[in-house]
Amino acid sequence: MEGVIVNLSVSPRLNLFSPKPFISAFKLPTSIALHRPFYLRPSQQPLTCSAFFQDQFPTTSTSPEEEGDDDESYREVNRIVGNRTIQLPNIDNDTDIPSFATEFLVEWKDGHDPSWVPSANIAADVVAEYETPWWTAAKKADDVALSTLLSDPNTARDSDALDSDGRSALHFVSGLGSESCIRILAEAGADIDRKDKSGGGGLTPIHMAAGYAQPNAVKALLELGADPEAVDIRGRMAIDLAKEVLAATPKGNPASFDRRLALERVVKELEGAVYEYAQVEQILEVRGEGNSKEYLIEWKDGGERDWVKTNWVGKDLIGDYEAGLEYGVVDSILGARMVDGQEKREFLVKWLDTEDTTWEPEENVDSELIEEFDMKKKQSESENVQETSNIAVSPT
Questions:
Q1: Separation between Cα atoms, residue 359 and residue 282, nearest integer Å
Q2: Is 70 part of a structural domain of the chain?
Q3: Which sections of the protein are ANK repeats (predicted)?
Q4: CA distances (Å), 395 to each of 147, 351, 392, in order?
Q5: Among 37, 182, 315, 353, whose Cα sits 20 to 30 Å from the Cα of 159?
Q6: What backbone torsions phi and psi does residue 171 show, to the nearest 5 degrees?
Q7: Total count of domains within the chain
Q8: Tens digit of each residue's pLDDT (9 = 90 or more) over 37-47
Q9: In this structure, is residue 231 part of a structural domain?
Q10: Segment 196-212, tens digit of pLDDT
Q11: pTM above 0.85?
Q12: Has residue 204 been placed in a domain?
């Protein structure tokens, strides 16, 4: 039986990122008074009826100038019948997160065809009447309300609508742990890996589920194809965030017991999705200092070598590497002896790649090889006893 002469350690083949504080909170919507009639806000340039984008509801309407409207900057709104999120050409250089804007499909009282209008050009009370039911349902994780709004045949509801923090409904229902809402939104086309811009930025729905200790939501998102390796602006994967929150959750406090259990379940779910565990053959090199220190790992199964951060390499392997110990493959254990003055054993090891034999301390020999050696020794002793008992003693 072959084995490595150190305790076999497992280490994930993915680098992790240093944890940072998790600061995030939900904001509940405030009550909004609605007023009629509704009008467009005056813009710097006269607003025409024709939309900037006409891909969903084509229109051939003419501009107010052509029809001789008295006020070119206003047109009376009947209602909003749809919304959509568009990506802007500029990207935040600090976060590399794209910027987005919202447009609304406006139905006009004068009978003109519906047209897309930027949110900034629509009165706040008009927008509030359309958006408040959506965000209320999202922040309460009301699956019935979300499903009803999405299935309304009279509106073109955007399942990926964003609030002022760049968060979608999926961010909120994930943080609240609603599996049903997650599936409803995902089936409606919501981006399950959408990154927000709140605080540091870059939190995806699975970050929200992990940070708010929602293991069932994490599992649902993973089943729907969410990326467990997505990182926020601070370089944290969802598992980093969960471990960070777990470390900050008090131990021994009955009030936090359930939360710790939930976070541990979150970590377990994400570990299964993120890490491929494998036995380490040896450490080849080291680079970096402090939290950025990494080790070049050679895997026992012959997989491609990887640079792995300190936290994810067995401490015994690091200790052996830093002590200058070499690794070898054991062919067999030939004998054992007690170390003088100690209760530990040493083992006489025969190496596979050399004729030499050496005495090695117990901690440097694979435990499975030791068990095999002890088993064979007991079996041999038992056979010897049996053989002795069968010998007939001749009378003198």
A1: 21
A2: yes
A3: 165-197, 201-233
A4: 98, 49, 9
A5: 37
A6: -60, -45
A7: 2
A8: 333 333 333 33
A9: yes
A10: 987 668 999 999 999 99
A11: no
A12: yes
